[in-house]
Every structure is written in C-alpha cells, then in structure tokens.
Amino acid sequence: MKRQFLGLLARVYVLQFALEVPATVAMLADMLLEYGFQVDIGSVRPLLRALQMEGYLESVLRDGIGRVYLLTERGREELQASRQRIDDLYRRLHAGQPATDEVPQQA
C-alpha cells in the first residue's frame, strides 16, 4: 500500500515538475530525490513512459540537452484534478484539528 501511494504521489510530482520546466530524466530523478523519493534514472524511466502512454507527457529532443519531457494539455487537466483531490484530502485530515499555536487541553 505504501509503495502504491508513493507511486501515485511521484506521478503528481513529475507532472508538476514537467509543468514548471522541460526536464530530462536525470533532472526529474534529481527533483524526486530532493523531495525524499528513493529513485534513480532506471526507476523514473518506466514512470515517464507510463505518463506518456496515458497522454500526460510528451518528449522532444532539445539540442545540447537531449530528450526532455513536457506536460500536455491532458497532463495539465490531470494535474489540476490531482491537486484538487490532494487539497480535499488535506482538508479532511485537518478538519477539527486545533490551530498549530493552540495546545490541546488535557482532562
């Protein structure tokens, strides 16, 4: 279950990164590493291939850089839907929680 959740979360991160900047496999792997994902180029490639097959990413060759991945319009829609689901989950998880500067009272 944890692996599946992390895989879904990695998909959202990759879509977000591809929105921000055309990125190579190595750049995307580095970005994921920065956010605590235990990945390497070999584990990122299948994810990118799957996102391409689903129509969320496209790849193009750039002179001097190599193959970069870009978010498609369909990918933008998926990213927006994923953001909404994450926001909804965040709100549900924090509903009724005391503010961070409040100390819960003990009985």
UniProtKB/TrEMBL annotation:
<dbReference type="InterPro" id="IPR036388">
    <property type="entry name" value="WH-like_DNA-bd_sf"/>
</dbReference>
<protein>
    <submittedName>
        <fullName>PadR family transcriptional regulator</fullName>
    </submittedName>
</protein>
<dbReference type="InterPro" id="IPR036390">
    <property type="entry name" value="WH_DNA-bd_sf"/>
</dbReference>
